[in-house]
Design brief:
Blueprint: E1 6-10, H1 21-36, E2 40-44, E3 60-62, H2 68-78, E4 82-84, H3 89-102, H4 104-107, E5 111-112, H5 117-124, H6 126-134, E6 143-146, H7 149-159, E7 163-167, E8 177-179, H8 182-193, E9 199-203, E10 209-217, E11 223-231, E12 244-246, H9 253-270, E13 274-282, E14 289-295, H10 300-309, H11 313-321, E15 348-354, E16 375-381, H12 384-394, H13 413-418, H14 424-433, H15 438-445, H16 449-466, H17 470-474, H18 480-487, H19 490-501, H20 506-512, H21 521-535, H22 541-550, H23 557-561
Parallel strand pairs: 1-2, 1-4, 2-3, 4-5
Antiparallel strand pairs: 6-9, 7-8, 7-9, 10-11, 10-13, 11-12, 12-15, 13-14, 15-16
Helix pairs in contact: 1-11, 5-6, 15-16, 16-19, 20-21
């Protein structure tokens, strides 16, 4: 372990769309790791509405902007032995690189813990990034780094439309966008240059799958992939705007292991110590791929991966930055497994973004490569359908799941499918209910057919529930005992069980059965709950402990959870 007594951690800065709240988790975990090692921690973060700036999380907090001038003054006063750059998002990373270039870190003899600054620069500067990956034969999207609008136009002549423009050193896809013609190009280039002195012009791969891997490496060159994730939406929509599923659902075994091996190859070659995020574009028609980018820091996806897998990525990354090896650390969540152990999920995790676009006047509701979401929720289920429906209920926009929601006003469903907005998932629901085929929806959205089949499965269950809507009328003249006899039919019990397994809430079931016609909304859901309990349709998790106690030697947890 490195001999350090005081460490400076750069926080994520002021709260804004695309940054701050998502990175509070990473910084707080890193500070927890420092405290466990008895190392004095100094935090710079002007955001008072975070966990990491709470009392006793860090030993000393400076509520100052995360900018080189302010950070240098803190370094001059505190004289830390080391600095952590990877736990405050792009703001902290950019600030750390600038301090390195100015010679501030060398002047005060501050050691960068974890990933070396040169490795950070190699991943942030597009030309260097492409050059480094070319050295190991890893494919990257052909791009041109431009400093003027004229250079942008020259690059497009070589690449041809459509292209994507991306501002370098920017978070959340700030200033990026797709261009199909000269007019869109000039408008997008002007916006991109307002955020960064370097603009990247790349050939568009819109419609390909977007896959991410969270990879960890220690100073001894040991590597593991902690989690892989798949975007529900195809390439072209920022990952912060997309529904993300972990682990990936539509990759073949060959595709999964090919991308995993490449991620490990990349992190070793670049020399990252700690955690990084590798993003791929994968051709849905073949195994062709391109590396989109490598984030040499804890990212928004890292926080999701940590919570989805139970592997404390930021905590482990901080310990690795101090010089530990993966084999020396325990997983602080499980308390038993080694940090050198790749999690294996027997459940599905869905991340659903949340937008508040109605609060902003004149904002474009179309989604693209620039992030507009203000937060996200994570839902866990045994099936994709269950996790998705749970997540859609949690985003706080008045929805009850994928179906049985308030009617969405859509004038042209096909046009709404072609142009993704913050209500796209519900437009897909309307399209399926309106009779659109899976193929037609796929052609318009490029969402993988596997996901669309699962969504259709939800609609099919809902339609089957509606066939039992006559139960609502029978309740008005039947005695409770007679009603229970009707409910105990095998067909209804099996359907009710399926509805719960695939994520339907009691209220959704009540609405499909039209119970709202005869009772208040809240009573309708409670009625379904009462029926379920009397019919013995309850979460299977309640049965696991009982079965395990009866058959301790024969109990297989994974088998029991699917009973």
């Amino acid at each position: 372990m490195e001999e350090v007594k005081k460490v400076l951690l750069l926080g994520s800065g002021a709260l804004k769309i695309g940054q701050a709240g998502e990175f509070d988790y990473s910084g707080a975990q890193a500070l927890k790791a420092l405290k466990e090692e008895g190392i004095q921690s100094v935090l710079i973060n002007p955001n008072i509405a975070t966990v990491q700036t709470s009392k006793d999380v860090a030993d000393k907090v400076y509520f100052q902007p995360v900018r080189p001038d302010f950070v240098e003054r803190v370094i001059e006063k505190e004289r830390p032995d080391g600095i952590l750059l990877s736990f405050g998002g792009q703001t902290a990373l950019n600030c750390g690189v600038e301090l390195f270039k100015r010679g501030v870190l060398e002047k005060y003899n501050v050691k960068v813990l974890g990933t070396p600054v040169q490795a950070i620069i190699d991943t942030e500067d597009r030309e260097l990034f492409v050059k480094r990956l070319d050295e190991i034969g890893v494919k990257t999207i052909k791009s041109h780094a431009c400093s003027t609008i004229e250079e942008v136009q020259e690059a497009v002549i070589e690449l041809g439309f459509p292209v994507i423009l991306r501002a370098a050193y920017a978070l959340g896809g700030l200033g990026s966008g797709f261009c199909d013609n000269e007019e869109e190009l000039l408008t997008q280039a002007e916006e991109a240059f307002s955020f960064s002195p370097q603009v990247l012009v790349e050939k568009s791969l819109r419609g390909w799958k977007e896959i991410e891997y969270e990879v960890v490496r220690d100073g001894y060159d040991n590597c593991i992939t902690v989690c892989n994730m798949e975007n529900f939406d195809p390439l072209g929509i920022h990952t912060g705007e997309s529904i993300v599923v972990a682990p990936s659902q539509t990759l073949s075994n060959a595709e999964y292991h090919k991308l995993r091996a490449l991620a490990i190859k990349i992190i070793r070659h670049i020399g990252i110590v700690g955690e990084c995020n590798v993003q791929y574009a994968l051709d849905p028609q073949s195994e062709d791929y391109y590396v989109i980018e490598v984030n040499a820091r804890l990212s928004r996806s890292s926080a999701l991966a940590s919570k989805a897998t139970g592997y404390p990525l930021a905590f482990v990354a901080a310990k690795l930055g101090l010089g530990y090896g993966l084999f020396e650390l325990k997983n602080s969540v499980t308390k038993t497994t080694s940090a050198f152990f790749e999690p294996a999920l027997d459940y599905v995790v869905c991340k659903i973004p949340r937008w508040d676009l109605t609060k902003f006047h004149g904002v474009n509701h179309e989604l693209g490569s620039s992030m507009k979401s203000v937060g996200e929720v994570m839902a866990i289920g045994r099936t994709f359908e269950e996790a998705l429906q749970k997540g859609l209920r949690m985003i706080g926009q008045g929805m009850h799941g994928f179906v049985d929601n308030k009617e969405l006003s859509v004038t042209d469903i096909h046009d709404a499918l072609l142009h993704a907005t913050d209500t796209r998932i519900f437009v897909v629901s309307q399209a399926i209910q309106a009779g659109y085929s899976i193929e037609k929806i796929h052609d318009a959205t490029k969402i993988d057919g596997w996901f669309l089949q699962k969504l259709k499965h939800i609609v099919d269950i809902n339609n089957r529930l509606r066939e039992f809507a006559y139960l609502s009328d029978m309740m008005t003249y039947m005695e409770p005992s007679e009603m229970m006899e009707c409910l105990e039919s095998p067909d209804f019990m099996e359907l009710l069980y399926d509805a719960k397994v695939y994520g339907f809430s009691d209220f959704q079931i009540a609405r499909a059965l039209n119970l709202e016609m005869n009772m208040k909304m809240e009573d309708a859901g409670l009625t379904i709950r009462k029926w379920r309990k009397e019919l013995g349709i309850l979460p299977v998790v309640n049965q696991i402990d009982t079965l395990a106690a009866e058959y301790p030697a024969q109990t297989n947890y994974q088998y029991l959870t699917y009973l």
